[in-house]
Design brief:
Chain A is mainly α. Chain A is built from 19 helices and 2 strands. Chain B contains 8 helices and 20 strands. The chains are: A mainly alpha, B alpha+beta.
Chain lengths: 408, 375
Amino acid sequence: MSTSGPTLARQLGRAEAKARLKSFGLVAPLLVFILASFALPIATLLVRSVHNPEVAAALPATAAALQIWDGARLPDEAAFGALAQDLLTAPEDALSRAASRFNSDLPGGRALLLLTARALKASKDAPSRARFVQIDPRWGEQQVWVQLGVALEVWTAKNFVTAMDYRYDENRAVVAQPREKQLYVTLFLRTLWVAGAVTLLCLVLGYPLAYVLAQAPQRLSNILMIFVLLPFWTSLIVRTTSWIVLLQDHGPINDMLLALGLIDDKSRLALIYNATGTLIAMTHILLPFMVLPLYSVMRGIPPTLTRAALSLGAPPFLAFLRVFLPLSVPGIAAGSLLVFILALGYYITPALVGGLSGELYSNQIAFHMQSSLNWGLASALSVILLSAVIGFYFVYMRIIGAEGLRLT
Amino acid sequence: MTMTMAVTKRADATTRAAAVRFDNVSKTYDGHHLVIDGLSLDIGQGEFLTFLGPSGSGKTTSLMMLAGFETPTSGEIYLDGAPFTNVPPHKRGLGFVFQNYALFPHMSVAENLAFPLEVRQVPRASIKEKVERALTMVSLAGFGERRPQQLSGGQQQRVAVARALVFEPSLILMDEPLGALDKNLREQLQYEIRHLHRNLGVTIVYVTHDQSEAMTLSDRIAVFNKGFVEQIDAPRRLYDEPMTAFVAGFIGENNRLDGELTTLAGERGLVTLSGDCTVDAVCAAGLAPGARVVVSVRPERMSLGAREGANTIAARLEEQVYLGDHLRIAARTPGGRLVIAKIPNHDGLPALSLNDTVNLSFRPEDARALLLAEA
């Protein structure tokens, strides 16, 4: 009825608002949990890649003095005075934290700052440029002051400069690292290569398996599926370490090849603690992530379609190629994307079986988080990895199309 | 519907050569239970034969064996006289129309139709032309660029039929192709399939569980039950002269009056309905006096009131339903048998009330005594 129109619309709006509120209430706990335990830490981490407040907080006068420094030669006496004042007045723990940060910009920087502070406190001499150089001759090097200037920047790009294998020279220009110090770009490319290779291996091994599972009667395929999932339910560490047992120089695989006369004792295959080990172990561990989406997509392809193709005169292989394969593309897409993205960020397996040449990007992130405590650089590396993942995702979506992707 | 495909004259039913022959074909899945039990039948060139039966009767399995998707456990199938059992499905050259259409969802309608031609390496220009013609034939000209999902159920089924016809097979199999459609659409498509069959002269083997669909379409119907063919005949003979109790019950409505065959004279015999009377009926082949039989009478062959030379049963009226063109009554005999009769409304209808005793009569030639099937 037209007369009740506005009232009706209002009633509908109220009813829908209530339903929305109810469903929101149901997901609210999860939302809060995700925000608190996932979104927030990640955001903090990402910010950390460009935010570097510790050194500037401990050495505020120096920061002000270096603001007007042209960087062309050593800073003037005023800057040395400001640094002396900061080192003498900064609280112990703040200075210690700043020194640790500075260490990542200048190797030995931590000791330099702390020892200089101690020496300044111990003597009554008026702090001057000469006195600084006397305490440690490095204070006379322009490079040291450039790095201190970099360390004093609260908002900084230095972590990304490092992550791209560049550095600041003594004139504060961004230049490439010397060849022997270049690490991250190569590592990134290797990570892409390994992730790609693992994805391809998983597809080659997983596709026929998923096909067999999908064609088998439901009862048989349920049983077979348990075998696919069984490794999935075993601890990651256990699975990885069993590969160590299998693949080591005197492990069963090398022994068997030796017994078969395929290799001799001196040419045992190096299957572990290198890229080969990483490839084998990661392919094994990530295989279910390929098989499951493939299987679920293949199960949804009606068997009558293949029969129809046969009845229309297509030989079995052609029927597969023209009908089954194109229809399984969403599964290939979902499985490949899943495996590739998981492989890009893989950490434990390469850490255990990768050795030096099988190390991946995440291992460097972990190293900077846990050992070198250069969180800024770890964050920058994470940002690069995350951007790469997001970038790949969108490129992928462009190629495959959103409707082509089915994860369940 | 426009007809542009090559038109072949249909051969006369009596002179048809058998296109397909099932020779003592059996099929078992588990080694104990026979799904098909010694099936032998001939399908004539250009014939429209329907496999009719309840689910699990073996009709679909028989069709699948003909298509090559199932292999007979024993026996042989011949196509045009040549053994066919070991020919793989893709070399059989049959058109197959599936129950759920089985259109390729990743291809357009035109690509679906082009598929069988492409795998036969038909030249590209010729493919285009044949696809156009096939689409026109099923009244879907101009739909070639659509995806199957964008079409209605009836249109999808037309595409499926066109795809099975486009490479001009001489034998087309259809597995309940109209099962998923609503009644009106089903009737329209039945008409279209009949039309196609008549115009193309192809042999069609059609599977359905819908008896009226089978009656509408078929030259002959094979009635399947538990892996046997109970009877294979033209629709009219199946209805008028069923040879088994199952066929009588499955095709159309019937009254089943159980009794014992007492005397047999030629084709006719007397059946004693215990508690009621004795009726004169046409006896199915192979009956001997003393046999437990069921007398099958179609409800529309029953009339009200006694007639000269007809069987008459007295019964108490239990129900009457006025249906406009006829009156449907249900009456109980003293022996406890329920008799249904359809009284046509051409000379006006008698006024009856419940519990009246009515006389229902039927001619002996409309009553068929059939061997009582063991339950």
